[in-house]
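Hi R.,

Here's the chain you asked about this morning:
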Amino acid sequence: MNSRKRSQPAEPLWPPLVAMLAVGGLYAALPPSLMAGAPPWLLVAIVIGLLVPMLLSHQRGNHSVSHFLGYVLNSLVTLALIFALYSLLAEVTEHQITPQRLLRSAAALWISNFLVFASWYWRLDGGGPHQRALSPGHTDGAFLFPQMTMHTEAKIAAGEEEWEPHFIDYLFLAFNTSTAFSPTDVPVLSRWAKILMMIQAVISLLVLALLAGRAVNIL
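And here is the predicted structure, written out as tokens:
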């Protein structure tokens, strides 16, 4: 392991935390019929209830606990997202949803989709954010970012010799997957990453297909 100290500041922790809070808020805005009878504030409470000990563990240097709680949180919001999409599909096929509610629900699920999977990519790539921060420069991971393909001289000239992906890089990757159904400028190297990206693309495609199908019915 490279023990050389980093000269650049560590990645801020607030972007992925805000993303999880946003997912909780979007879920709370869904119709009650998509929540299996659970109160709309339940997922928000779960998110906050896990984020607090995650932050405390991170500040105390107990990164293994923080990492584990992150996996639990990501898993719960992913399950909530999938169940809400399943419920929305059922309501559409049974003609039990109004166009306005379909549009709001589909938009909330589509945004939640790339926020959730951006969090997965950020948390899993290269052993996670803490592991990536231990050594200066990101050279190995599940995704091949353009900065990783630069020659050493070019990196030094551009001031990118200690570059590592931050949450916004994974958010951009997840957004492209939900819109273009491909990773665009970031090739995928790991099998687990390919599986997650396929799941994300399928969810996004289903949401868009619901909107397209409803538009055809209106026309």
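One quick note: The helical segments are 14-28, 42-59, 63-93, 99-124, 129-133, 152-158, 167-179, 191-218.

Cheers,
M.
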